[in-house]
Write a structure and sequence with these properties.
Pfam families: Rhodanese. This is Rhodanese-related sulfurtransferase. Keywords: Transferase. It comes from Nostocoides japonicum T1-X7. InterPro entries: GlpE_sulfurtransferase, Rhodanese-like_dom, Rhodanese-like_dom_sf. This protein has about 110 residues and is of the alpha/beta class. It has a single domain (about 1-100), classed as Oxidized Rhodanese, domain 1, CATH 3.40.250. The chain is about 20% helix and about 15% strand. The protein contains three helices and six strands, in the order βββαββαβα. The protein has helices at about 30-35, 70-80, 90-100; strands at about 1-5, 10, 25, 40, 60-65, 85-90. It has a six-stranded mixed β-sheet. A hairpin with a 7-residue loop joins strand 1 and strand 2 (about 10). The protein is globular. About 30% of the residues are buried.
Length: about 110
Amino acid sequence: MTDFSPDAPPTVRVSDLPDDAVILDVREQDEWDAGHAPRAIHVPLAELPSRLDDLPDTDETVPVVCRGGGRSARAVSWLLQQGFDVANVADGMKAWEQAGKQLVASGEESPRVI
C-alpha cells in the first residue's frame, strides 16, 4: 500500500512489494556491490539527474530504495517534481534484508546490506 502525506513523499512497505519487483536503487557502488534486489536498477543518487533514461519505462509506480530510506526519500521528492510515478521504500534495503527477500552480490562474497 502506498501512503501519501503532504510533508513526506509517498512510501511503500517492503511487505507490499513482490519478491521480483523492479526497483530503483540509489545507493553508492560499494553498497550495490555488497547486495541488492535481483531486479533492481542501479543509479546512484548523485547520477540521477543525468541518468533519467535508465529509469524503468513502466506505467506502474517505481519503488525507490537506499539503505534506510533517507537518500531514496530525497530521490523520490525530486523525481516526483520531474513527473515520475515513484514511491520511497520504507526503511530501505535494511527492511528488504530483514524481510528475508533475495539479495544478490556483484562479487564472490555472500550478499548483504552495508
